[in-house]
Amino acid sequence: MITATDRHAWVRTAARNNAEWCEAMCRAHGLPGAFGDRAWTSEWRTPPLYPDAVTLAADATAWEVLADIDTRAPGCSVKDSFASMDLARDGFEVLFEAE
Q1: What's residue 2's pLDDT?
Q2: Residue 7 pLDDT
Q3: Phi/psi at 26 (nearest 5 deg)?
Q4: Which strands make up the sheet holding 39-41, listed edge to edge?
Q5: Quick one: pLDDT band at residue 13, thresholds 50, 70, 90?
Q6: What is the CA radius of gyration of the chain?
Q7: Environment class of 46 (CB within 10 Å of its CB; exposed 0-12, middle 13-18, buried 19+)
Q8: Taken in order 24, 6, 64, 98, is the CA torsion positive or negative?
Q9: How distant is the alpha carbon of residue 40 from its chain centre?
Q10: Interatomic CA distance for residues 8 and 31, integer angstroms
Q11: DSSP code of 38?
């Protein structure tokens, strides 16, 4: 049986894996990002279809994520790996949800 602890660990691992992929793609375009405890962020607009931030912790706050990205740039996006943040008041909308 899969426990909640197992599931949470897998989600954290998947989030980190996705952030590492985004970092690799951005670095290949000369736009390296930064890993923090709660999120990976890019201070520059990322290549098309790549997020500007990926959350790495379920308790990441909007302030922690948005402080390190250019929210004024068209197409700015955040991948909330844990679907735990409400970014609507910051001008974001949910594009899709997935499991």
Answers
A1: 72
A2: 83
A3: -65, -45
A4: 34-35, 39-41, 53-55, 78-79
A5: very high
A6: 13
A7: buried
A8: positive
A9: 6
A10: 30
A11: S
